[in-house]
Amino acid sequence: CELCDIEFNGKKDLRCHVRKHTLERPFKCLLCDAIFTSRQVLKRHIFSHTGEKPFECEICKAEFNRKEHLQSHLQIHSGEKPFKCKFCNAKFTLKRHLERHKQIHTGQKPFDCEQCSAKFTSKYNLDRHKLIHTGEKPFKCEICDAKFSEKSHLQKHMKVHTGERPFNCNLCDAKFSVKYHLERHLLIHTGEKPFKCELCNASFNVNSRLKIHRRDHVEKPVHH
Asked: According to the UniProt entry, where is the signal peptide (predicted)?
């Protein structure tokens, strides 16, 4: 390419690449207004309209509309994790997962909230944060009228209806629907009290008890 240093094996690939510089997009979708630099990308786009997924996994029968998505999926079955973090020993099956992970080390947060000063490492986390401002709760329980801003919160809520308690205490027979509740319960066995009052030496194994304790200081201030 005369405009950059990238080299190609064939003229066809070079022509498609040059269109990225010239912004030429001669291939138009007849079903919407989308335009593309190559016929191949247009064909791939049409699958989004037809719902066609011609690439099937032979192991689990999962279907994909792009060959590279199938190739990435196959790494789940093989256990292959070719993308390694240069800062630590973490490995990933997908390059985008590695790029997202590297932001932990670099501290980079390129996605800014337009309504406040919050910044995020991924667009997904930004979109989830925006629900705080809009008050939107798109995840609704089909059994009752409860609504949630995050899918994980709905999944936790559903266990109330199903009675499912998959988190077992290995020190007694107690079972819990949420992992956090199990972790809080384990403090009873260990005797650990991580929630400390900053006004006196009192400590508690549950944050709610610390909050109740703080009210005593408001009603009866500590004298030094």
From this structure: none
